[in-house]
Design goal:
Layout: H1 4-24, H2 27-59, H3 76-183, H4 193-205, E1 208-210, E2 212-215, E3 219-223, E4 229-233, H5 234-240, E5 241-243, H6 249-259, H7 264-275, H8 295-308, H9 311-346
Parallel strand pairs: 1-5
Antiparallel strand pairs: 2-3, 3-4
Length: about 350
């Protein structure tokens, strides 16, 4: 029979062989050696238990007595037999106790392994619980934020609906007021033929006319009928300026006045000017009102100058007449602008 020391050496060799086989990748042979190693380990444990039992049996004194019998009087063989029986019984008892202790220790090891596994599972479960709690807290926060955004969106929707209803009401009121305004009688301004002519002439005077255009790239050189010019953006020229029809009547009339020896043409022209005099109303007044210092007086003076003076005096009178007309057109433009403003206010 192998001793405990021999079995331990054999077990150590088996463990070395197992490591070598595993390093070489021979896992099948390593598994077989592990089974043999487990059997050797079991034999070692049993021998250790038996050795402990034998040691305990030998260490305990064998004392027994029988009433009325002096054991010293018995033969030596009987005494040895009795001691052998006692030791065998004690060995049985100690072996049974050792087996129970071994079972208890095995169970204890299993329970400790189970406890360690349970602890590791508990720790893993605790970590998972903490993770889930964190996720739950994050989800609650997201839900709270989403609810806040939802409530804000609902509030904005309600306010938008209220504003929409208010705008609809304002639109209906505007449509009603516009329809009512369209049904009302529009104010009418009655003018004479001469006043209408003056108004049209005043409107024409504020228009922008050009005599010729020169393309200078992004701007254009605009030459006005009076000979002056200015640089205007191309788009502005297309939108606000109109080609002017420059008549030759002024030059012709001047030549007639200067070339006529008996001043007959001048008298005719001055008479026509006197007949075509324009009544310019004062600013803020009606078209029927005229001022004593209007165009009419200047026209009479121009006629007198034409009749009383030569060709040079007639030209000066016409220039004065033109200036008076321009001043009258300016005042008339102011009147027209004021009437337009009053019309807008009334509308």
């Amino acid at each position: 029979m192998e001793t405990i020391e021999q079995l331990q050496a054999k077990l150590k060799q088996k463990e070395a062989d197992i490591q070598d086989l595993r390093s070489k990748g021979n896992y099948a042979e390593a598994t077989k050696l592990e089974e043999e190693s487990a059997k050797i380990q079991y034999d070692i444990e049993q021998k250790q238990i038996q050795a402990q039992v034998d040691e305990k049996v030998e260490s305990d004194a064998i004392t027994f007595a029988v009433d009325g019998v002096d054991l010293t009087d018995l033969p030596v063989e009987v005494i040895k037999l009795a001691e052998a029986i006692v030791r065998a019984d004690r060995r049985r008892i100690y072996s049974e106790q050792a087996i129970q202790v071994n079972e208890y220790e095995t169970k204890q090891k299993d329970l400790e392994a189970q406890l360690a596994d349970a602890k590791s599972q508990l720790e893993a479960t605790q970590q998972e619980r903490n993770t889930y709690q964190q996720q739950l807290a994050d989800e609650k926060k997201l839900r709270t934020d989403a609810e806040s955004k939802r409530d804000a969106a609902v509030q904005q929707l309600v306010e938008a609906q209220k504003e929409n209803e208010s705008l609809k009401e304002q639109l209906e009121e505007y449509k009603a007021s516009e329809a009512f305004a369209n049904t009302q009688a529009q104010p009418k301004v009655y003018t004479t033929a001469d006043e209408a002519t003056e108004i049209n002439q005043a409107l024409d005077s504020v228009k922008k006319f050009y005599k010729s255009l020169e393309d200078w790239g992004s701007v254009m050189k605009v030459t006005k009928p009076d000979g002056s010019f200015e640089l205007v953006p191309r788009q502005t020229v297309n939108e606000e300026w109109t080609a002017a029809d420059v008549p030759e009547t002024a030059d012709t009339t001047f030549r007639q006045e200067t070339d006529t020896p008996n001043n007959t043409s001048v008298e005719a022209d001055s008479s026509q000017v006197a007949d075509d005099q324009v009544k310019v109303p004062a600013v803020g007044g009606s078209f029927q009102e005229t001022t004593d210092t209007g165009v009419s007086g200047s026209s009479d003076e121009a006629v007198r100058d034409v009749h009383g003076e030569g060709s040079t005096g007639g030209a000066e009178s016409l220039e004065a007449r033109v200036k008076d007309l321009e001043d009258g057109f300016k005042r008339l433009s102011d009147v027209v602008a004021e009437l337009i403003n009053e019309k807008d206010v009334a509308a």
